[in-house]
Backbone:
């Protein structure tokens, strides 16, 4: 079987998104060295990690975590850029599997359902896929947690939050999400919300509020990157 992989890689070569070196295995986006050098947070499920602290006093999130630190201008910025803006869906699945590896031996692995942050239908049509759902699929492959993509919907088409401060982001997202129709009873369930990046936490807070306002559930949050 290895000869077939080698043959395919010969005619369908790909390069590491960080260092540019030729990759020698299908389905990966980083070489071994760059994956090992990834600026991982090491947050795990520590109660007082920086991601969890974002939500203190704002919304009842049981725990939050992120895979790696995002630094603008760093080589690893290409991972999310390729995923969101260059149609590299493979990057979402790959990063999701790395996230799943981080989660599988923590309390996050006990969650009953994984919910990717939804895109507005207009944005979904433009991009062709939801990057958070791709990440969730990769993480689900590792953890075995089922995905619930039809629990929360995006009801408003919010403008980009890139240049907004924390308060502006919160106001922009406050009415952005609602519960879908015919959602099953989620009382006493542990729900893991998945997204690509967390900065101020406004988007994830809004998603959490939708679930917590309808059900007596427990919300956990995990993202690929933390800025």
Residues:
């Amino acid at each position: 079987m290895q000869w077939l992989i080698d043959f395919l890689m010969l005619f369908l070569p790909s390069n590491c998104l960080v260092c540019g070196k030729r990759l020698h295995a299908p389905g990966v986006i980083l070489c071994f060295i760059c994956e090992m050098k990834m600026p991982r947070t090491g947050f795990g499920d520590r109660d007082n990690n920086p991601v969890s602290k974002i939500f203190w006093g704002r919304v009842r999130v049981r725990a939050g975590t992120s895979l790696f630190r995002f630094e603008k201008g760093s080589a690893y910025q290409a991972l999310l850029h390729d995923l969101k803006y260059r149609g590299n869906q493979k990057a979402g699945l790959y990063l999701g599997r790395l996230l799943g590896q981080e989660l599988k031996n923590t309390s996050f692995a006990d969650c009953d359902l994984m919910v990717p942050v939804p895109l507005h239908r207009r944005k979904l049509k433009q991009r062709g896929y939801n990057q958070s759902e791709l990440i969730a699929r990769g993480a689900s492959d590792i953890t075995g947690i089922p995905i619930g993509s039809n629990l929360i919907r995006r009801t408003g088409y919010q403008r980009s939050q890139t240049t907004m401060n924390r308060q502006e982001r919160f106001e922009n997202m406050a009415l952005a999400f609602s519960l879908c129709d015919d959602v099953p009873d989620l009382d006493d369930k542990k729900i893991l919300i998945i997204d690509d990046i967390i900065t101020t936490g406004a988007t994830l807070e809004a998603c959490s509020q939708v679930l917590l306002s309808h059900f007596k559930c427990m919300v956990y949050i995990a993202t690929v990157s933390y800025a």
Remarks:
- Residues 1-37 form one domain.
- The two ends are 41 Å apart (CA to CA).
- Residues 1-11 have pLDDT under 50 and may be disordered.
